[in-house]
Design brief:
- This protein is mainly α.
- It has 18 helices and 4 strands.
- Strands 1-2-4-3 form a 4-stranded mixed β-sheet, with helices on both faces.
- Helix 10 crosses helix 11 and helix 11 crosses helix 16.
- The longest helix is centred in the middle third of the chain and has 18 residues.
């Protein structure tokens, strides 16, 4: 199968558009929602004494309990001493100051989250916005999301000019850029709503489940490019869009949709620099991208299906069948 690279300008609109419109419907836009991101690293890296750390923990009980897991320690002095060492580490302080400078203004992140939480509140009236904090953990945790707390590890998302970068592969590092941070956090949040049939771990089941997660983020962030949601470069997204028919043909010709061998499924769903089974230039995680396109087609053909109904639906075979997904070769 021939996998053709295309110039990004040819399909720039595809790489840059995550939705048909960026405007929220009036009934969603008028939902009151005020997100203020609290910058915990600023106070944390000004501390030097054990007493200051204890005051910090008392001032931020949710962060202490959920992110730092204070209650898991046999005695709080263990955590306090570790945090004193963290706060006074000169190398880490340099990274923290770079993160503070890079994220000096988080208005855009607050705006993205306000939009996302308005959409969530519209679809799930019981939703209560979590507290949102930033922190520098010394590259030990990038994101944390629970019902009541969201922590953005800004030291991970400084970008290419960071003094220290996460110890991971280059193809994963490209996702540790600022514009991927909020979409990645919302992808984690989707786990709270995304129901799946865990008794069937076939390729198609995993595809549709991943596709639902990306569709969830797309719905919450209608103005954000697809590339920022899935973590492909603009060129990669242009290429997979251009080659969609050929990619799909590979799954059909190799009878992969109902494959249950975990190693085979992982080749198309898991982290890899490329998918050489399709083409040496094809990016990894192609199964997740195809799943996203299946779910998109399903929702286009079923406009009466709500986001909560989609996320609660575990019948992946029905979603696939009703999507009538069958992209043509170019």
């Amino acid at each position: 199968m021939s996998y053709r690279l295309v110039y990004i300008a040819i399909v720039l609109f595809l790489a840059g558009c995550g939705s048909n419109t960026c405007e929220l419907p009036k009934e969603i836009d008028r939902i009151p929602m005020d997100v203020e991101i609290e910058r915990l690293e600023k106070d944390f890296f000004s501390m030097e004494q054990e007493s200051e750390v204890r005051d910090f923990l008392k001032k931020n009980p949710l962060f202490a309990d959920q992110f730092l897991q204070l209650n898991e320690y046999p005695h709080d002095s263990i955590l306090v001493n570790a945090l004193v060492g963290l706060a006074t580490n000169q190398s880490l302080d340099s990274l923290a100051q770079q993160a503070i400078q890079t994220f000096e203004n988080v208005d855009q992140e607050e705006e993205h989250l306000e939009t996302a939480f308005k959409v969530l509140k519209h679809h799930y009236p019981e939703f209560t916005a979590p507290e949102v904090k930033t922190f520098v953990s010394g590259l030990s945790q990038d994101l944390f999301v629970s019902d009541s707390l969201m922590v953005l590890g800004v030291d991970y998302f400084i970008g290419k000019d960071a003094l220290y970068r996460p110890d991971t592969y280059n193809y994963i590092l490209q996702r540790y850029e600022r514009h991927h941070m909020v979409p990645a956090a919302l992808l984690l949040l989707s786990n709270r709503y995304n129901k799946a049939d865990f008794l069937d771990r076939s390729m198609l089941s995993e595809m549709v489940n991943a596709g639902k997660a990306y569709y969830f983020v797309q719905t919450l962030m209608p103005c954000v490019p697809d590339s920022s949601i899935i973590g492909y470069s603009g060129q990669q997204l242009a290429d997979v869009t251009h080659n969609e028919g050929r990619i799909w043909a590979h799954f059909i010709e190799k009878s992969l949709l109902y494959e249950k061998n975990p190693m085979q499924v992982q080749k198309y769903m898991g982290e890899r620099p490329s998918t050489p089974e399709i083409d040496k230039n094809a990016p990894g995680r192609l199964g997740t991208w195809v799943g996203w396109q299946i779910v998109r087609k399903y929702m286009e053909r079923n406009p009466d299906v709500t986001l909560p109904e989609l996320m609660a639906d575990t019948d992946f075979k029905k979603i696939f069948a009703e999507s009538k997904y069958k992209p043509e070769r170019r």
